[in-house]
Amino acid sequence: MAAFADLHVASTDQQVLQDVFQTAIKLGFDWLAVNTFLTDLKGKGKKGQQQNQICQPEPVELTDQTRQLLKVEGRKVRQISRLTALLDDTTNTHKLVSPEVQAFDLLAVQPTNEAAFKLACCTLEVDIIVLNMTEKLSFYIKRPLVNLAIERGMHFEILYSPAVRDSTFRQNTISNALQLTSVCKGKNVIVSSGCEKAIELRGPYDLSNLGLLFGLSSPQSKNAVSKNCRAVLKHAEARKMMKSVVGVVKSSQLSPGDQWILDSKRPLSALPQTTQEIEQPPAKKGKT
Amino acid sequence: MTGDSEKHSYLRQVDKSPAPYFYIKTSLEYEGRGLETDSLQLKHVIMQSMTEVFGQVGASDTVDVLKLSASGEALLRVPSRSFVKLWGALTLFGKYNGLPCVFRVQQVSSSLMSLSCNSRTWDIPAMS
Amino acid sequence: MVRLKHRYFLAEIIFPDGRRLQRNIKSNDVYFSVREALHAAYGDYGIGVLKSSLMVKYLNKDTHMVIVRAKRDFYRLAQAALTFVKKIGEHDAFLNTLHIGGTIRACQKFLIRHHRQHLPLLYQECDTQEERDNVQLMLLSSCVDMETFSKKTEEKERSLSEIAGESLT
Q1: Does this model's pTM top 0.80?
Q2: In contact, C29 and C68? CB cutoff 8 Å
Q3: Fold (CATH) for B21-108
């Protein structure tokens, strides 16, 4: 079973983040994405001034209590960085491929109008499409576009923490979520918090029940907090690799967790043999 | 057959009809943790959350507070047709008297017996 | 392609304080009173579910007839909400659901038949001879309409049977 994930923690304050992480870990989440919100995609100013500096969120230091809890349960929690860009118009999207943006693990866009939504579904290389569900959507979610986005492996996100905060937000969230789930038939939907405080977080099993109110079926709503989130992460990984099945990383840049690969490397003398083995099958084919 | 196994024989009951009730084990947490809840207030909070999210029709379903332990854990019983609604209402509940609060649902089950232990969390007394 | 289906409620606004009065009601008033009743009965979820589809499609200020639209998946919530309406605009009023249809056309058809059936009641309420004559005329014309309609259908059936007979022989 895939682990539970919350792919949108909205707060940026380190102290609050610690609180949020502690609560989330207690509730059973294993993947947590800290969001950086980008209100516009405008690049550098005229005189080379950076208009909006994009910086990676700092890794959250877990408190000793949380560490102990993790140790007891034998779990690992991974923090992911995520960038959400507000997509007002269809210009400036080239910023999304810049290295500073690509440094984030997850990329999400929040289109506010029809043209932006179309662009996000059809061409943009992002992982998540967020819609502002606290207000009435200014455009119809069209099925062909959504189908295309699903085919490209993108996911749609429903944020639930506004629904906890306010009554009107709750009405709009339910209304828009129902619209979305009826259009995409419950496929490729993820439910994440978007929380600013620890108190707005809800447990993964609560969420899989909440999904039922959003028009998902029960397996779908469970997948919305687990399997689909994993699919998002895999999509993000694949996006960075472009179209390939093998990635090449310099051995000096290998992350500490992957160092074992170097240790288990075969001796050089064994290498030619393996290449021969690989080359043999096509030769056989040519003969027959 | 030895006499030993006969000693441990038990009655196995299988009920194939849909469960009439669902049981929820939950606790109400406030942000500051400064407030105590008694059973009357808890019931009021639950009813309020149901009315907020599902209106008077939703709140007309009977929710029973079976037990409220000293640690703040409450056992709720609800007819199974309104189980999803109640759980949803508890999830979406965020404020009571302007104070941010949250229902942490520990366990749900269709039989009361299975709430006696929790396989998902491993509570060590020294930890909490 | 799947179409989003709706249910249309044909309802009559009844004012408990006397019937034939010209009242200034807007369709917005009806909408908000239904919405308020929905919110009271089914809460945020009810509103959230029906928000995108709830709509007053038709309001006749003279006959006090309304057609309210709701999404078909959840139309029962709207149906219950209609009965809980207590006030429309500033008047005390309630809604009496006459018909639930899948299209506006079905509701209109029902409305015409309903009005036709209720013409004799109108006759009872008349005070002057002139009004009575008017109503009588209307009754007559509606009867004529019905007669021509039935005649037409009869003719159609006859011609159809003739054709069928010819093809048989």
Answers
A1: no
A2: no
A3: Alpha-Beta Plaits (3.30.70)
